[in-house]
Fold each of these.
Amino acid sequence: GADFAMATANSGGSTSAISNWLISPAVLVKNGDIITFYTRTVDNPASGADRLQVRVNPVNGSADVGKDAASTGNFSEVLLDINPDYLLEGDGSYPGDWEQFTVVVSGMPGKNAKLSRIAFRYFVEDGGPAGNNSLAIGIDKFNFISVNQ
């Protein structure tokens, strides 16, 4: 359909560090499980680079993200960091058209599945309506595949 999750520069005020979270329900997660999703920013951004992290909570099934924009709480494992250098164009920049990403879960303790959560973090430093970074991102068609190991 036409529905998708979206976060914008208005997630922060004036100039700010944006830390906006979209967190899955608690699910059983283990190393090797697969996450797929589509994401994009606006067409041909001239300013305002975007960034997205995919994280997992290897500790427990809580949704603890910490107390401020610099904190990540129990979501200590970064599975993917899209555009950490805030590029506006070229390789490594945020896609301007819907692009599929596939992530393999790692960093989970032990071999057995553990109750956990997957999180998308719209994390943009020097963001907000008056900042140098951040425009808008969309996330669509999230899929979590538990694999047998």
Note: The longest strand covers residues 118-127.
Amino acid sequence: MTSLTMTSCKDDDPNPDDGKTDPSTIATENLVAYFPFDGDATEEIESLTPTMMPGVTYVTGRRGQAYQGADNAHLLYTLPANSKLKSLTSFTLAMWFKSPLVTGDPEPTVFEIGKSDDFFWGNLKFALNRLDATADSLQLKVFFLKSDAVAWTGQHISYSNSVFVTDMWMHLVLMYDEVTSKYMIYKDGVKIETNEGVENRWQAGDDVVPRPPLGPLSFQNADVLNIGAWRPKSEGTADDAWMGWFKGNLDELRVYDKALSAAEVKALYDAEVSQIE
């Protein structure tokens, strides 16, 4: 059974009787990146600061301030040699998230652990797919890399659900578990029931029997962390209209080097809510 490491306190208040829980005390040993976005883009675990940050502004967030995306706005960080973000074998992305409807040409990149010998997909990418203009929700897309040793090197997973409402804050958790080879999505502390084709990840297709589970991820040449942009456009010469800029908001973005348990996800959400004034 997974144990939760929790301390009841406000982020900046040690009083244990105020009914608040510091979210950073959930799965502390596995927290490898944390972006509060309170007026700047500093990351607090590895002390990362962006080498590029054009057009980024900060607005009132779910807690304090939040990242505000826009056309041509993005953040780029160089990962140090010993960064744990370079060698994730499982992952959890957790964040307060708000986005307008994605329709027409642009498909925005939200978050990416990149590799500069492949500007396009990198090692781990969270993006949004476009939907029809009549839609009132979002389609989430995640790509992550296994290795060249398997038939399905890149895992592309798109999933839409009416609970991913546009222009509304939601606490979003995306994760992959190397032990079970499952990809899972949580919204506001509750697991979204997807389907077998979304959740179960394999090394090969239906023509291989039995189908081997994907297992641990294996990133290649991970060297940067990118938020808000397609790198072929923000760092290269691409001008494709479909390479969209993320125009929504991010707040309290956390990366873990494991798949959180359902109890940890719920505890993280409850702790986040406890901090909201």
Note: The two ends are 33 Å apart (CA to CA).
Amino acid sequence: FDKAKQFFRPSLNDLHDPWLMKDMDKAVTRITKAIDQNESIMVFGDYDVDGTTSVATLYQFLKNIHPAIDFYIPHRYKEGYGVSKTGIDHAKATGISLIISVDCGIKSTELITYAKELGIDFIICDHHLPDPVLPPAIAILNAKQIDCGYPYKELCGCGVVFKLITALAQAYNLPDESYLQYLDLVATAIAADIVPITGENRALAYFGLQVINQNPRTGIKTILQQVKKDTFTITDVVFIIAPRINAAGRMKHGNHAVTLLTETDFNLAAEYATEIEQFN
């Protein structure tokens, strides 16, 4: 009965304690130190939907508590997937001392070693399968690590980011809304990345869909307005929202997707959405 109830009536109480994830304490300690010492932080993410929603989520959350935040998305065709040397060199040139990779990084041992040699620390938020040898990062948040005791293993990249911002919100005594407001992005990533909608993902997708339908962020609202529909299901997110966000990285640059997802001015967002519609 309890399992059926949890399945059909998800609750935010079903979400696991973020501190159960291996290295969460190390990640939060390093980020709070960076903020205390006014270091420049870069959020580095992939150009697909999971990557761009992850970047938009973490970038906006951190920007609310620390001004020195930048983001970087590699060019799909010039740099390829994952952490790139070009991105690390850009970080070095712009005085970045901490890079947080989202939806990538778990396989980037050589490049993260290179960053370390340049004096740049790395925190990895990823959900892809780790290799036996892990990159020399300050902290690795990935429930698929063999020695990670986190109870749910199927989070997408944006889901891992959501756990990080939940922990940061607790560390800074911020209200729940400071991280729950990003559930529309988390649900979009869950849908687009085709991760199992079970357990924690089910609760995140359920409440994320409520945000999409009731109070979506400006960028998502402008995408939805191009489609004549009243209520959006998870299938609509897969086939309507996700392809449009993906199109930016495929046709031009993933930065366009993040710009749309982080824009608060409706008229500007509508312009970006029209551009993304043309890419699609």
Note: The longest helix spans residues 234-251.
Amino acid sequence: RTLGIGAPAANIRVADFVEAANIADANKWWIGGVEWSTDSKWDVLKRMLQAGGAVPTMTGAMIGCRVQAPRVSIATITAAHLLEKMVIPATKPRRSRFNTVIPRYRSEANDWQIISGTPISVSSYVTADGGPRTREIDYPLVQHEVSQTNVDGNRQAGQLAAYDIVDSREAGPISFVTGPQFIGLKTGDCVTLDVPGE
């Protein structure tokens, strides 16, 4: 090992990272930049995954990632499965929600400095909020290279910003306890909650 977090292969959910790589390839998302051996290993992993629309996860002693992608529900949980009352936040606080992002990424044409890209907005959220609520988000390992075909940092950062806008408004987390029949679910799996009383 030269760099990295040094986790043994047995503690890595390899399938999570394969899925993330496949989605990044399908979206023509690229990663590039410089990280240092003195930087926090976990922070470097987070920045690398951010460029591919993913976030790291730790479930038990396993390191994986959850990638931004449509999901198919693989189980239905009903009131009969619940062992305790569900905890459902009504909504995220207004301070945490935004409807416009100015994505910032590296540009070869600007001597690899981080520049501000085209603002990304979700018009229905702007209307609901009564005006723009803007946030700048850095994507330091997303870059625009002049000489490379399909390496469009502005497009990639804009797509990642759109995910961040939607995530900022999603209520949660919803907490509930079930029996052992759902022990096979893992972080990132999608389930249907059919609990009309809640």
Note: The chain has four helices and eight strands.
